Amino acid sequence: MTTPAATPPERQAGFRFPSAYTILFMLIVIVAAMTWIIPAGQYERVASDALGRDIPIAGTMIRAVHRVSGERVPWPTPLKGKRLG
Fold this sequence. Notes:
Blueprint: H1 20-37, E1 41-42, E2 45-48, E3 53-56, E4 62-63, H2 76-84
Antiparallel strand pairs: 1-4, 2-3
């Protein structure tokens, strides 16, 4: 008597969770894109004795100079820092 050959398990089609590098790259792209959407600025602040810290005053936002992260690839800067440091 012969036994039938073992068949390899079928691979399930569907969602495969991305690697940590893929998730990190997607986060970098999202954060870089947000520099074009969210305005940079600062609110005037007033000291609050009740809270013990400065609190922002509503409606007093002063926009900062618009500087985006750049159209180039974001990783040369850390590499330059490692080379110089």
